[in-house]
Design goal:
Elements lengths: L15 E6 L9 H5 L4 E6 L2 E3 L9 E6 L11 E5 L2 E6 L11 E3 L5 E3 L16 E6 L4 E6 L2
Parallel strand pairs: 1-3
Antiparallel strand pairs: 1-5, 2-3, 2-4, 4-5, 6-10, 7-8, 9-10
Length: about 140
């Protein structure tokens, strides 16, 4: 479905980028997800983000959904904060300050597993845990610049 706007990430304010939303099974974000801090964005295609799969690298936090909907009623684009500190829900083992995080494939983050060698492309984890709020099951993650 076409839109009346054509987004170009070179014209968006620094730190916020607009991506097409992956509307595949279990990939799309909803306002309910964002209200629950289930907003960890993962690259799933060219200029496309979704919830990714378990152990995917998080590139930022979905902060807004486009009002333009596809035939299934899903937003077609999302705004993602890719710089600074972001609060995102976490699952499983409570993260520790200073640790890196990965996506759990459902909009939350989890601690990055220890690896003996980072392999090609560097470390898989993205960001550094600055704060853990166990009462809301969220972490504040500093995204690298």
């Amino acid at each position: 479905m076409g839109t009346q706007f054509s987004w170009d990430n070179e014209s968006i304010p620094e730190g916020i980028l607009v991506f097409d939303m992956d509307t595949g099974a279990n990939q799309d974000f909803t306002w309910t997800d964002l209200a629950s801090n289930l907003c960890a964005a993962v690259l799933t295609g060219n200029n496309k983000v979704g919830m990714g799969t378990n152990n995917s690298r998080v590139i930022g936090k979905v902060i807004s959904l486009s009002p333009v909907l596809d035939a299934a009623g899903l937003s077609t684009q999302v705004a993602v904060q890719v710089k600074g500190a972001v609060r995102i829900a976490y699952v499983t083992t409570t993260p520790v300050l200073g640790m890196g995080v990965l996506s759990n494939g459902a909009g939350a983050v989890k601690i990055s597993p220890a690896v003996a060698s980072p392999g090609a492309g560097g470390l898989a984890s993205h960001g550094t845990v600055l704060d853990v709020d166990a009462s809301t099951t969220t972490v504040l993650v500093l995204l690298p610049n």
